[in-house]
Amino acid sequence: MIQMKQVYKKYSNGIMAANGFDVNIQQGEFVYVVGPSGAGKTTFIKMMYREEKPTKGTILINNVDIATLKAKRVPYLRRNIGVVFQDFKLLNQLTIYENIAFALEVIEEHPKTIKKRAMEVLDLVGLKHKARMMPDELSGGEQQRISIARSIANQPKIMIADEPTGNLDPETSWEIMNLFEEINARGTTVIMATHNREIVNTIRHRVIAIENGLIVRDEQRGEYGYEG
Questions:
Q1: Angle formed at CA 185 by CA 218 and CA 5, multiple of 5 degrees
Q2: Domain-located, residue 84
Q3: Which of 146, 144, 155, 149 is nearest to 189 (CA)?
Q4: Membrane-spanning residues where (predicted)?
Q5: C-alpha–C-alpha distance, residues 54 and 192, integer Å
Q6: What are 76-122's pLDDT values in tens digits?
C-alpha cells in the first residue's frame, strides 16, 4: 500500500531529515514510528500525505507516485488518508457534529450521507451523545476522540497519527489506543509516530526506528528501544 524508494529530504537549513528511506507497508498493518526528537519521524509521516515533498526519491501510495503528484491532485490523495495530530485541530466555532460534517462537505458528500456517516463515527468513538456540544466543552481525551472520528469519517484506507497521545494522561492514552486498535482491526492501515514507550512495548506491532534521518531498525512486534 505504501512504498518509499530511496527517499531523501533536505531542508533549506541544511538538515537532512530523510537520508535514503526504503520502506514497504502493507494494507492493514499497524506501524509505530519511533526515535529521538528531531530524528525525522514527523518528516517521514508528513511525506506520506504530501505535507512535505521529498528532495529526491519515490513515494508510492496505492501505486501512485505522490512525490511527483501535481498540487491540484493532492486533495484527492488525502481523501484516502486520515490524519490525527497531537493538538486535535478542531474548529472551535463549530459543534462536534459540525466538525465532522465539515470534513465530509469539503469532499462534496451527499447531505444524507454526511448525516449518517457523522453519527456513525461519533457512535464508534463513544461520543454520539455530545454531538451538539462545542469542542471547548470537552476534555482533551474527548477532543482527541472527535479528531479521530473526523479523520475516519470518509472511510480512509490509511490513518496517519503524529503523537496522538502526547497531550493526554495515561488512562486516556490507553482509551485512544484501544480506538486505534479497533480502527486497524476494521482493515485501516495505521502509521503512528509516538514517544510513548509503554504503549509500544505493551501493544506490540511493527516498529520503525529513525535516527538522524536514517531508518536504523525495522522490526515486526518490535520494542520502543529508547530510554524514557
A1: 35
A2: yes
A3: 155
A4: none
A5: 20
A6: 888 889 999 888 889 999 999 999 999 899 888 899 999 999 999 99
The total of structural domains in the chain comes to: 1
Residue 105: φ, ψ to 5°: -65, -35
| CATH number where 78 lies | 3.40.50.300
DSSP 113-150: HHHHHHHHHHHHTT-GGGTTS-GGGS-HHHHHHHHHHH
Beta strands across the sheet bearing 56-61:
16-25, 2-10, 56-61, 64-65
Return the C-alpha cell found at 55. 528532495
Phi, psi of 2 (to 5 degrees): -125, 130
The confidence score (pLDDT) of residue 78 equals 86
Rounded Cα gap, residues 5 and 83, in angstroms:
22
> Does the model's pTM come out above 0.85?
yes
